[in-house]
Predict the 3D structure of the following.
Amino acid sequence: MASNNSLDEVTLISHALDDLQKSHSDVFNTRACRNTKKFVQRRVRSEGIAFLTKTLPRLGKCLDRALSSDTPMKSTDCRFSPATGSELPRFLGEFFNRVFDKSGTVLQDPCAASVGIIRKISYLFYKYELPYDVEQETDVVHKFKTCEEHLVSTVTPDLAKLGHELFAVRYRWTALADHRRALVVVKAKRLLARVFSNFDCKDIVPRHGPGAVATGQRLWTKYQWNNVSSKIAEYYPIDEYFYSSLSHVCDRVQELNKLTGESFPAKVILVPKDSRGPRLISCEPVDFQWIQQGLGRAIVNLVEKHPLTSANVFFSNQQPNQIGALFGSRNGRYATLDLNEASDRVSAELFKLLFPSHITECLMACRSDSTKLPDGVVLPLAKFAPMGSALCFPILALSVWALLTAGSPTKDTRERILVYGDDVIVPTAYAEQAMETLESFGLKINRDKSCTKGLFRESCGMDAFNGVCVTPVRIRTVWSSRPSSSSYCSWIAYANSFYDMGWFSAYDYIVSKLCAVYGAIPHDGLQISGAPSLREPSEFTHRLKKRINKGLQKAQYHVLVQQPKKTHKVIDGWSMLLRYFTEAGAATPDYLNRSQRGTGSDESQSVFSASQYTHRRTSMLVRRWR
């Protein structure tokens, strides 16, 4: 028997359907709502939760494809029974009929609100982070190996041949039979040469990343070196980049003499992603990560400020791509491209072909050329860097931007190209040529998810149709009946999203379950900073403890706040000094001001401490007066 504290996914979606009926009673009457809920319950009984995490999202993908291409909407393509005399699904047919005619063709004046409703139901549990099985794990590793085999057998030899031919004719592209690709390479190389003309690969501040490393060091042992790859040391001398000062080197001279110069492979790990399976991450060795982080930050800083790239390539601001997707859905002038396995398909050969030699030498020196798979097999890498390297996304974004800009026909087209990692926006008139250009250099376009026709676009979390945002709420965090920091914060956010959409029945259902587990929860009307809050109180919320703080002359409430788990480890003084120089000492004044003031959910946060470590993706709930 289910606990009163448990949240049932079918019940939640039933509440969502009730909300739809109340807000769209002229289209979706009580009888239709009742039949739809029974249909969901019946399919979940027969298929399990896979109906919510796989079958319904398939319906949403068919909808998106029909709206952004010439493919008609057919119920049989998404494994739903059709309505009588129609190609459209019977499920949510009341809303499908406001978007398509009976043949599945988009209407002259389709209803954007109906598109949003179908997508909100279809994608509700698409990102659900359910445990993955061995078969899904094997499939992810197999795809990684298959991609690598394709790079080795096809892409690398092809690009190497093109590079040799260009070098032989001194980059006079007109002398080659493959004129078009040669021209793109020459132009792209010139663009990147201009971007990096004054960039010094040695002028970096190395640092460690927050994640795991292939060589197994813990957070507090990463600053004590026992190995530095000889190929890194050739470009980044150990005494300059791995120690805090010459005095540090002198004090550790015996340790320095014992350092080995071996290059260890990276290490593949699988981390939870969503209901489709795990995400593959290749953890870098600690010495490689140290330099990569410094280079990655320096490149990102350069690109976001350089006149050639500052308005086209982004790493921290998704808004330009989101606005581009919204405008593109309104007038069709912009297309959004989806790159498949983007981080795994930028080959090392492509990197060497496009980037200036002074860049390639340094970046190849701190690149892992192999990775260890979960079964222990060491796989040589033909890709430049898999996901997990700090250089993966900067090089991916710059490669895509350079190729598309070099291949664009006009200046106006070049200025309207937007790249955020693997999210790409181009003028629609250039979309087909842009996809062909990228694919000719070994990248792969997911044409089903690329939006080049119709009035549907998606990029950087913005899903838009005909100028209207139709981005659904995608629930990721699986409900926990026991107190959990991640569950508490995530489900408050989901409840608030439903409230903002007007789904008040779904909101109340989540709130009732939250209060059963966590007790009193604040709401926005109390204006409590630093604590997750509900939009408004409901009949299920409890009264919060309250006091008057005479010193601050204000009312305070005893609320749950999220606090990171911290570890204090006292390591040797030189290692702590090295950490201070690379993390706090190299930080921006804004970061230092925040750390001195104390921000976030913990008011006791103090100035940077070289002996304090925050565990990544771990936090706890504590009650504080706020």
Notes: The chain is about 45% helix and 15% strand. The chain has a mean pLDDT of 91.
